[in-house]
Design brief:
alpha/beta, 8-stranded parallel barrel, globular, disordered N terminus, disordered C terminus
Length: about 325
């Protein structure tokens, strides 16, 4: 594939990885090859996305095996042009994920404990109740990914006590499953959930892990989430982002999400703060103003994380 690459401008503390499952899902409803997953990836990268996330499910309901190989080649070409970007492949290591890891050697593999027919990812690895045999299998998959030169992130619920268990298995990162935060955002439950995620994030860092996050993050809640969890290295967003792109286009949408990341880290002003008359400072409190800080869309909680989320994860992490 030949392409004219424009230089993206990022350098943000938290990387935006765009989950393209939903683009593939729409494409698969016809046999015309549109919308193009490859073109979507290129436009997002040119707009400043720091990575691309894919979740090739066994039933190929959205991302197909050919998509993984073609997008892996695109990311390789992108990097040879002097750009920084990562390929993140999500999936269950006990299903179809590991052959993709061995063949494509992505920068990151996110292990998700989904069943084959699961609609969307809705829970993390229950490492506290997992038997010794399953733990050994999971550790072996982590070791195999490492042998391919791939970083491993485990999809986890925001439970602080589980973070050392993820580290003990050899994981490099955890991806915090953020659906509960998204559901609580703008409600009286928001401060409690912000603290829960902040505690889990701190516990992960203390255990020697890096932290990702995804599922149902959107333009309305992303900045507040990063205020609570500034150590998050990557957010994987699909469903909400692709929904916004239908109205705004890929380039404007990626730029809008990067702006919300910058706001969450105090690197840009939040134009909605003055409108609602509240101080959206980084104090970890409830920053909800009672307004819709977006375009009036509802970015519900059906993200396909790629696990069905569109981490897109939300991943569709």
């Amino acid at each position: 594939m030949t392409a004219s690459f424009a230089e993206p401008s990022t350098g943000l503390p938290t990387a935006l990885s765009v989950n393209l499952n939903k683009v593939a899902f729409v494409r698969n409803t016809r046999h015309l090859g549109i919308p193009s997953v490859m073109k979507a990836a290129l436009l997002c990268l040119q707009a400043g996305a720091a990575g691309i996330t894919l979740h090739p499910r066994p039933d190929e309901r959205h991302i197909r095996a050919d998509d993984v190989r073609e997008l892996s080649a695109l990311l390789t070409l992108w990097k040879t042009q002097g750009h920084a970007a990562e390929l993140n492949i999500e999936g269950n290591p006990f299903q179809n994920l590991m052959p993709f890891v061995a063949q494509c050697k992505p920068d990151q593999a996110t292990f998700v404990p989904d069943s084959e027919d699961q609609f969307t990812s809705d829970h993390g690895w229950a490492l506290d109740t997992m038997g010794a045999t399953d733990k050994a299998k999971l550790k072996a998959a982590i070791d195999a990914a490492h042998a391919a030169g791939t970083r491993v992130s485990l999809f986890m619920d925001p439970i602080a006590s589980l973070m050392p268990l993820a580290k003990a298995l050899g994981a490099d990162r955890v991806e915090l499953y953020t659906e509960s935060f998204a559901r609580a955002h703008g409600t009286p439950e928001q401060p409690r959930l912000m603290k829960q995620f902040a505690d889990a994030c701190r516990a992960a860092v203390a255990a020697g892990l890096e932290v990702n996050a995804g599922h149902d993050l959107n333009l309305q809640n992303l900045s507040d989430f990063l205020i609570a969890c500034p150590a998050v290295r990557e957010v994987s967003i699909g469903h909400a982002l692709i929904g916004d792109a239908l109205e705004m286009g890929y380039i404007q949408t990626v730029q809008a999400y990067n702006h919300r990341i910058a706001v969450g880290h105090g690197l840009a002003q939040d134009p909605t703060a003055a409108a609602c008359g509240h101080d959206h400072s980084h104090d970890g409190h409830d920053h909800a103003c009672g307004h819709d800080h977006g375009h009036g869309h509802e970015h519900g909680h059906g993200h396909e994380h790629g696990h069905g989320h569109e981490h897109g994860h939300g991943h569709t992490h």
